[in-house]
Amino acid sequence: ATTDGVSSTLPVPVNGTISYYESDYTGFSLYQSPTYDLTDINDYNDVLFNTQEHIKHANIEVLTTLTEDRYTFPFVDHPTTYEIGTSTGSGFIFMEDESSYYAVTNFHVVNPEEYDATYEILAYNDEGYHPAELFAFDEDLDLAVLKFDKLDRDEIEFINIYERLYHKFNIGEMVLAVGNPYSLINTVTFGELQSMDTISNVDFKVIHHDALIKEGSSGGALVDVDGNLLGVNTWGLDSTEVYSFSIPNYIVYMFLVNNGVLG
Q: Could you identify which of 98, 169, 191, 228 might form a hypothetical disulfide with 163, taking C-beta atoms 3.0 to 4.6 angstroms apart as the criterion?
């Protein structure tokens, strides 16, 4: 397959769906950004500053509220709604249509469990939360898409999910993680891409990096120095060293195609 003239081993859709295997990734070419060749430290710092600001404009906070209807004593004809709890996480905007934005997050951020769930988001420069709907999800991949009205927002930007799709990840390259750890909105951390690792949670290799992520970072974007999507931050380990793990961009792309979010 080709995109913008770039040759790729991306699987051809069959009946509207695609699948990825480890052998597909090993066939990808290496990626070379013009930023890697910059020799002037001021130019490089300008790129980092611009990327940091860009990904903040695409970041959202996700607020999930779980409720349950109960019939109270003495019995009445209608139930009372009880709030079971709330949780927050992160996500990033990657697409729009005429009236809505679409954001990727983790399924565990929006998991309704056995309860009724409502979703709200806080986008860049929002003064309060706004309703969102669960548009697509895959529990096994731990991915979901939220859809919400554009309203009158004028500072929203989008994470590019395509630029790095057809290339291997460069071990040692700088990465940036954006999210809302402990509800600290638009927090950006820096690190290096360490390896592609196997973990027990999933049956595909994940990105191991050392940009710090904490509770509330789940669903946030992991990007390269230019702001292109590398993965979705999903797991972290508390230890004396930083172990952060992300779902790779090609798994995210497969999820979006197979669930009809992308054509």
A: 228
Task: Look up 218 and say whether it is catalytic.
Answer: yes
**Are residues 168 and 28 in contact, defined by beta-carbon separation less than 8 angstroms?**
yes
Question: pLDDT (tens digit, 9 = 90+) per residue, 15-59?
Answer: 778 888 777 888 888 999 999 999 999 999 999 999 999 999 999
Contact 231, 252 (CB under 8 A): yes
The residue from 87, 100, 108, 210 that is catalytic is 108
Check if the beta carbon of residue 62 is closer than 8 Å to that of residue 105.
yes
> Considering Cα of 96, then 233, then 179, then 56, what sign does the dihedral take?
negative
| Beta strands, E only, 97-216 | 100-105, 116-122, 130-138, 143-149, 174-179, 187-197, 206-209
* 78 noted as active-site residue: no
Pick the catalytic residue from 218, 224, 244, 246.
218
Catalytic residue among 54, 57, 142, 226: 142
Q: What percentage of the chain carries pLDDT values higher than 90?
A: 76
**Catalytic-residue membership of 108:** yes
